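Appendix B. Raw example, untouched.
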Amino acid sequence: MSQPSYSVYFPRVLHFGSGCRDLAAEEADKLVSGAPVRMLLVGSGTVSASEIGKDFIASLGNRVVARYCSVPHDPPLSTVSEIIDLIRQHRINVLLALGGGSVMDASKAAALLSQGNGSVKEYFDGVLPLPEKMLPMLALPTTAGTGSEITKNAVLTDTEGHLKRAIRSPLMVPAVALCDPDFTIDLPPKVTAESGLDALTQALESYVSSGASEYSRSLAEKATGLILKWLPEAWRHGGNAEARLRMAEGSMLGALAFAQSGLGAVHGLAHPIGHLLNLPHGFTCAVLLPHILEWNLPACQESMDILARNIGLQQATALLEQVKKLLKTLQIPDNFAAFGLTAKDFPYIVKNCRSGSMKANPRPMSDAEVEQLLQKLAEA
């Protein structure tokens, strides 16, 4: 059943389409109400050095007064601290994030936490309440993708505490999101596959989440159809502009859905497994996806049947088979045996999977049931 009442959080301004990056300078000017823009660019080093990236940054003129282009995947707390130091050192009044999910998450966390007086770890650990204001921020995703340019959470890694999880605040939704598929044209096939499968997972989990509503399901349905249709083409022929456009649209619509509904057990398990095995988030989600879809089916058969029919398939089992076929095409394995998952890892995963995503899963999983799944995922 869909939620009869719900709240929706999304950017105040959302631009989508090829070339919409050209609106970034104008939107930045609006955010500071006539004052000179002092912008910090947080970006992927690869994108910033690309032709499209250099041209885009040049279009911002002297608005950019500082750069930080070395965000690692699964951004650690220290990265957020370094970005905050630059915000304060250069008296930044607008932050611009240009990159994938790690860049977005580190940027959103820094934009929010820079407005308080505590350390990043104190906020991450919940010792201090999150600040009640955020530095104005523009987000330009360069993958299709995580959807982090639209959401109110940031996934960070405490390397010392050996913990990866999200901090959440409605304030962390960027003021402006510009979803320009032109940035994705040159993505390599591996990144295209992994980011696209993350987007597919988000759409499917959103659709059956316990927080799903008519609003979120309509978006998740459209996102699922777009991604299943266009991801193989974007993977095979990265220069196909329509495939890139539709994948970016699917990612954006899926993010608008799950930002309201929440996710599910794939994401609950993906964070500790990905952190433990040092695997990309999208890849980890992709390996988990068919297993969790099968687990959930008894609890959401009717909803999945409706989704399947609405995207042109006969029933939920046909949707599951299409997902499995897509994963095989994109060369995703069906377990983590080759990546070193063993029984000694199970207690850590069980302990650290009990996130909000796990709670939103339509079919609960006990600790013993999680261990049973992990045993299956560890077998060669």
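End of appendix B.
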